[in-house]
Structure formats: structure tokens, C-alpha cells
Amino acid sequence: MHYLIVPGLNNSGPTHWQSFWEQSLSDASRVYQCNWDAPVKSEWVETLDETVASLDSDTVLVSHSLGVITTVHWLLEKAAKGGVPGNIRAAFLVAPADVESIEIATDFAPVPLQELPVPSCVVASENDIYVTIERARQFADAWGSKFVDVGCLGHINADSNLGEWEQGRKLLAEFEKTLGL
Q1: CA angle 85, 172, 164 (to 5 degrees)
Q2: At what angle do helices 41-53 and 66-80 cross, to 10 degrees?
Q3: Per-residue model confidence as pLDDT tens for the chain (181 residues)
Q4: Is residue 78 within 8 Å of residue 84, measured between CB atoms?
Q5: For residues 157 and 163, what is the distance between their CA atoms, to the nearest angstrom?
Q6: In whole angstroms, what is the distance from residue 135 CA to residue 96 CA?
Q7: Residues 145 and 4 sit within 8 Å (Cβ to Cβ)
Q8: How far apart are CA 90 and CA 62, in angstroms?
Q9: Contacts of residue 53, Cβ cutoff 8 Å, sequence gap at least 6
């Protein structure tokens, strides 16, 4: 299985769990946006599309924050235009950003609330400053996603001091197992 890391605003720095996972998973790569600091939805979605098009292996999208919303827009756009590539097996969506209340990300609003065309899992924290746990659950319900509340881990990012975030790795493994991946 290939894991495509889809970071959010400002990329995921060297102490972010996504960076650790990119280095430690046996087959992983990362989406590289042209402008990490001033995101434009159409550009971010197009970059994700180009990155996925370069992949041949079965892939799980591992997205964080604004990367989650980018992934959701991309999945729904692909579904509307004939289908998601067959090698995209699932989406692991961590700490979705509520872009409707984040000034720098309003270009990504509104958050789509349609069922996603691939199996997905939303992981959320009770004290995330970028999305309430209730809103994250609303996203998961609308997207047809499994929902996991991990307690109080902030935005589940480098500021949360999670290192490799072993809990997240276990959640990913459990999610894959339920899908038979």
C-alpha cells in the first residue's frame, strides 16, 4: 500500500506526525503545493490531482487540516467527472479544518457535505482550535466516514508534540484492516 501524505496550511514541518510517517512508512510520498501560505482551492486541488495521477500503486490518502478539505473537494470533483482513480482505496482524514470560520482558507468554503466515493475515517480532537468536535462529527456523518474522537490533542499537529503519533498509526492500521487492505 502506498500512503500519500496531504498536508495542510504551511505544510507539515519536520516535527509533525505526517513528516515522521512519510519517513517511516515503507511506501509513502507527499503532495507539494506551490504556495503553502496563501492557499487557493483550485490550485491545491489541481496539485493533488496531478500527484495522484503520477501514482500506480493502491493508495491511502493521509490528510491533515486544510489537506483534508482539499482531499474532500478533489474526491467529490473526481466522482462528479466520472470517478475517482481505482488505485485510491481510502482516505484517512485527520483534524479537518472548518474553513468556513478560518479567514485565510475561505476560498475552500463551503465544506462539501456529500458522501465521499471512497471509504474514509475522520479523526478529531475535542480541543482543536480549527474545528469543534461537533462540527468534525457533522463532517464525518455527511461524508459517510468512520469517526474517531481522540480526546484532547489540540489540532493534532506539531504543536501537539505527538512525535510519530503511534495512536494515529494504530487507528490507520485498524481502519485499513476493517477495509481488508
Answers
A1: 120
A2: 70
A3: 999 999 999 999 999 999 999 999 989 999 999 999 999 999 999 999 999 999 999 999 999 999 999 999 999 999 999 999 999 999 999 999 999 888 888 899 999 999 999 999 999 999 999 999 999 999 999 999 999 999 999 999 999 999 999 999 999 999 999 999 8
A4: yes
A5: 9
A6: 9
A7: no
A8: 9
A9: 85
Quote the CA–CA distance of 72 and 147 in Å, as a whole number.
Answer: 15
Handedness of CA 58, 166, 115, 42 (dihedral sign): negative
Statement: the pTM of the whole predicted model exceeds 0.85: yes
Nearest to 139 by CA among 75, 74, 72: 72
Cell numbers 480549527 label which residue?
130
Cα–Cα distance for residue pair 112/54, rounded to 1 Å: 26
Which amino acid is it at 79?
A: A
Nearest to 151 by CA among 135, 172, 127: 127
| Grid cell digits, residue 54 | 503520477
Q: Please list, in sequence order, all residues whose beta carbon lies within 8 angstroms of the beta carbon of residue 169, skipping any fewer than 6 positions away.
A: 21
Q: How many CB atoms lie within 10 A of CB 69?
A: 29
What is the Cα–Cα distance from 149 to 123, expressed in whole angstroms?
6
The answer to whether the CB of 92 falls within 8 A of the CB of 175 is: yes
